[in-house]
Amino acid sequence: MTQTYKEQYRPQFHFSPEEKWMNDPNGMVFFNDEYHLLYQYHPFGTTWGPMHWGHAVSKDLIHWEHLPIALYPDEIGAIFSGSAVVDWKNTTGFFEKDQPGLVAIYTSAGTYPDSDRPLQQQSLAYSKDNGRTWVKFKGNPVLSDVNITDYRDPKVFWHEETNKWVMVLATGQTITIYTSYNLKEWEFASEFGHTAGSHDGVWECPDLFKLPVVGGQEKWVMIVSIGDNGQSAEGSRTQYFIGQFDGSTFVNDHDDSTILWLDFGRDNYAGVSWSDIQDGRRIYLGWMSNWRYANQVPTEAWRSAMTLPRELSLATTEAGIRLFQIPVAEVSKIRKGTESYQKISVETGNGVSIPLAHSLMEITIEFEKESSSQFGLIIRHSEEEKTVIGYNAVEEKLFVDRTQSGEHSFSTSFAAVQEAPLKLEDQRLKLQLFLDTSSIEVFANNGEAAITSLIFPSETGQELILFSNEGTTNMLELNVTELDSIWSK
Ligand code: FRU
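That is the input. Now the predicted structure with beta-D-fructofuranose docked in place:
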């Protein structure tokens, strides 16, 4: 038996379950100094199966403590994705006076009585002891619609201005908005998205929240994950919309044909944000996999990990207001020593090798393009393998090439070049990379573009190579910081 968290490919600073299958993050809420992370969990296998909610808590979003399974399937179904909130005002009546508690709002995924036809309905469970035990509401389900097959993933928040709870729910290929005074009775408010954005697959796992735009105004952001349709190269992925919300209707700022992708890598799905964080931050976390091959990735004791938690913001770019994301400041907790390099001119054909002493790393690097058509860095480099992170200056695209990154035989969709459109500013490109045993997360120009990608290299590699094609690029500054495992203590 391999020791838990020492297995090949086991993420060392990303959350993964101790064992067995995990998918979407669920019920993320901050309460009494703890960040709760619940998740779609199949405790009896390493492939998707009857869903439970697994549970972990953290004081710092980085180190996690595993807790027992929070919710088990029951007579109305398995426990599909959903959210959790603090019922500060005891609108539900579940709690004692002045002792607010947690309410989970999730999808009961069952079937019609006497038939195999799927039936998805929304249910509640509550906890009076900081999420350590959960009681299902006797009146479940609280919301049903017999006419819609895909009717799931409620994300609920308190809308201050109208004094109501708001639920965004994935309904086929739209998002339906409901409101409630007590989380138990829900009223239809509006439906968004018939013609907007990407309709490449079923819509899942919505989120809706307000964010300030750097420089003044406020906007609402709606996040929508899109299921794998089996055809597109990308598999499952996540889009977002920016607009206005008045407590009942979301109005998209963009025309219907605009599609905004949250992440340009293949492995960031079903992500939503934490509820009830009090310090003003909007923190997001995604499932670091893809339905195209999630059930086949080459890990044994467990399957899947989450992305790093990321702080979201809105800023204005040449193309308009866009969502930016950077890893939360708390990653500093796992930073160890840094080695720095300055000013290296990289010429065509002459890759510059930088020795690497560690396998878990954060790399920050800034390039200044001179005449190159393409430049970047190669990591996880060994005789047979490499992962290339580069910038194509002709097409103005950042890319992560994992075609030779290691094991990929489990899916023909895995070996791929992942690209994000990105303009250079003053010919400069700033990258922040997080390299775990089986993943890489790339954030460009302070979070303007993100590429999240699984990789399964057989070796960690002992060098980083800077390259430039068809001209020169200056590497202005490189910092390689060793990162600690979160499971070591
Ligand atoms: C998204 C999803 C959700 C659903 C859950 C089931 O990955 O398909 O829509 O609630 O996974 O595990």
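The pocket of beta-D-fructofuranose is lined by residues 23-24, 40, 51, 80-81, 107, 152-153, 204-205, 270 (CB under 6 Å).
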